[in-house]
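Researcher: I'm preparing a figure for a lab meeting and need a structural model of a single chain. I don't have an experimental structure, so a prediction will have to do for now. The sequence is pasted below. Please return the structure as tokens so I can convert it later.
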Amino acid sequence: MIWPPEVEREVAAMAPHDRPILLTGPPGCGKTTLAREVHRRSGRRGAFAPLDCGTVGRELFASTLFGTRKGSFTGAENLHGVAATAVGGTLFLDEIGELDHVQQAALNVFLEERAWRPVGGGEPRTADIRVVVATWRPLEVLRPDLRDRLEAFRIGLPPASPQRVGEALFDWAREFADRRRERLVPVSSSARERLERAVQGGLSMRCARSWLEKAIMRVWVDGSAAVEPEHLWDLSVEASDGWDAPALRRLLDECGGNVSALARRLGVTRSKLLRRLVRVGLR
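Model: Understood. Here is the structure written out token by token.
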């Protein structure tokens, strides 16, 4: 993907080193893709190990990240956590703004000592792990000590824009073709304009990429020379779901402020709902 020049400069400067990096920006702007790019440019040979903190319950965060020791709780077995998977590579913790202050304190200690202990005891383990974290929330939700550790190494991503999507289309198409071992399909100017209008209507970078890949699949089937608007016939170019701020505020109150519960109730993804909440000023 083509990044804004200021983002490209920061990645080039920070990727070769081992300090934790904080990625910020609205949902769907490309934070996970950028974290993978940091890992690629770091030269590390270990795995890229992601963990979405927003989908892990409070009770399971420590055991998911650090692993468990058999007998530490009912049904517990000796299991490696995501941290162990990332040894020699990069640990990507997405949505750290969803962690409570107790979990943030544990994360801060982990970043300080580069060591962890499985839930239930055992010897501490120290290993070479590069950590990249991300959040769409304002930094005020982080504990001051964690925020102080991360803020100097922050890379802010801008929201999706027609220009960013237009610049990324060729890279997305090439990467998809390489992954599927199929022919590279160009995108016509009119199809590009349709995707750009959809982004103006609220489509995220992540969703735009998914729609492009769907259109390319259709091209591979019908044998067209390029992606045309008819391959995006079911893509809405306007934000028309009708969720205004008062309605969302009422529904969110009914769900006790739980964004995941409201997303399930509305039948949409959590990330799409978060984008709308940000857009109407409720986050």
